[in-house]
Amino acid sequence: MGTYRRTDARRNNRHRAGGLLFFTTLLALTVTCAITAYASANQPTTVIAGSYGEDMSRTKTNQEHTSAAQQPESVSMSDRQPGGGNSPAHNDSESWMLTLVNAENPLPSDHSPKLKSLANGLQFDERAIDQLNAMLSAAREQGLSPVVCSAYRSIEKQRTLLNNQTEYQVTRGLSREQAAIEARKVIAYPGTSEHNLGLAADIVSINYQSLDEAQADTPEAKWLKEHCSEYGFILRYPKDKTDITGIIYEPWHFRYVGVEAAKEIMESGLCLEEYLAG
Ligand SMILES: [Zn+2]
């Protein structure tokens, strides 16, 4: 059953996972899903060339994270299948957790998952929020203090942020066309961020809330990497897969894919793109 489900999901995602060359090309242009829920639309973030990330490398103050860590969310990814397929009913109900979202595979603009709020107010897909809370609780039982600083982000919000960033670039003197290009280096195109999906959470240590590689050295990040698969989560953007994911190493970004897939992915060292294409 498990294998069947995965196979179906892979088949369903194959059209998305394919075209590595095309994807690689897109990577050069694509951006950061960036902008977390708390990023102010009025304060465009500067970008360092070549450091695109799903969450944009940046440093936040504890206060910003704290406030950010207090917002809810909701997600519901319905795995819409192309071609109006004849996939079995169980497939539609189970493959949602393996939905691939990246620059080459954007979500539909009307994607509106069913969400539930975390204790801090951020929102997450209602179908996986219990697993997220269980993982956080388990970490806390070990004396750790993980903080979810970003979770669900609506596509509409993403679009607003991108538009604002474009306008900001125009005020800096760029042509509208160039401004749009620069803006997309900072903010992911609406629908291409896993945060739009609602199954991704950025988790940092309360003692180190910067979204940079040093996050990986915190006790929280180490514990999460080792145990996340037990709760159905994967470290989505590994250090050695940036050429495939198109996203910088993000030791804070965790994606729910279900326990079975999570264990296979974390044990095999494959990234989600490779797993789904396999
Ligand atoms: Zn993230």
Write the SSE topology:
Layout: H1 2-17, H2 20-29, H3 62-68, E1 73-75, H4 89-94, E2 115-117, E3 123-125, H5 129-141, E4 146-150, H6 155-171, H7 176-186, H8 194-197, E5 200-205, H9 219-227, E6 233-235, H10 242-245, E7 253-256, H11 259-268, H12 272-277
Parallel strand pairs: 1-3
Antiparallel strand pairs: 2-3, 4-5, 5-7, 6-7
Description of the structure:
With 278 residues, this protein is of the alpha+beta class. The protein has one domain (2-31, 60-153, 192-277): Muramoyl-pentapeptide Carboxypeptidase, domain 2 (2-Layer Sandwich), CATH 3.30.1380.10. It is built from twelve helices and seven strands. It has helices at residues 2-17, 20-29, 62-68, 89-94, 129-141, 155-171, 176-186, 194-197, 219-227, 242-245, 259-268, 272-277; strands at 73-75, 115-117, 123-125, 146-150, 200-205, 233-235, 253-256. It has a four-stranded antiparallel β-sheet with strand order 4-5-7-6. A hairpin with a 5-residue loop joins strand 2 (115-117) and strand 3 (123-125). Helix 6 packs across helix 7 (176-186). The longest helix is centred in the middle third of the chain and has 17 residues, at 155-171. The two termini are 18 Å apart. The structure holds zinc ion. Residues 54-55, 150, 195, 200, 202, 253 line the site of zinc ion (ZN). Zinc ion is lined by residues 54-55, 150, 195, 200, 202, 253.
